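Below is our example:
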Amino acid sequence: MKRRAALQMLAALSAGAAIPPGALETVLSGVTPDSIDQMDVDRWERTVHEYRHVCLMRWTGALIPDLTADLVALGRLLERKNQPSVHTRLLRVSAELSGRLAIELDDIGDRRAARVAWASARRAADASGDRDLSVWVRGYEADQARWSGCPDHVVTGLADEAIALSGGKPSRGLGRAYAARASVAARQGDKHAAFDALENLAEVTDRVLEELPEYHLRWNEAYAYTFLGDGRASSSLDRALALYPPGTMTPVANLRLIQALDLVQQREINEGLEQALTVLQEGPISTTRYHLAERILGALPEQARKLPAARDLRALTVRA
């Protein structure tokens, strides 16, 4: 078994590919203690915090191999007879890593796999007894469902579940739920509901700023204002773009697509189309980008839909 795993590792490394999930753990089994302690769990919790940062700096789908490998290793640890305190902390780690994997899967368009990962995340979070984490899983699932083609009532249902479970306690999960509500309302043209959700999101952000940075609030304001045709869209977009850390990839790219939509809606057609094409050619086209690109195409005046840039944008966003 160890020899086969070692050969798999060497083959993957020589080909420049990722090490198969579980191979390294199999090779190292027997050379480390069978039980794990609090320091081991500390390292897993640091891994979770690392993913929170790294996800901003990588393109959609790039973290799937790493998350899968970590979840395989973590699953083996959870099968052991650990101390109750260790087991609970490992469940929390499992919930967040499963949620992170679900996010990646949702955004590459694999909704079925994402549903499986979300279900795993919910079970682990609920079993850990950490209510804030359970709210986070449900709130983030609602946040992602708004891009994946789910009906609006499914998105709001997930958001409502997170809000009800929170009991009104501010948390990053509650913020995600209000963001989902704001987006759906904005798409439906319901200004009152959208502004109400944004107000709630702002209140949560103010209370848990360390867990839910201001750039998340401003991103969702920019989205809602743009879809509603609100005059504050342009300034909100500029403010959001200025807040993200240098090197941020996916959220900033998506903001620039929202900005392209704002330009098209203001009849700066050529500039908006060129910006959209530039952004879409920089990285993989995720479900979020499909959503935004389709909105840009839908906002074009009839005579502009025959422009070469419009045809190029349409060709880029044809789903397989």
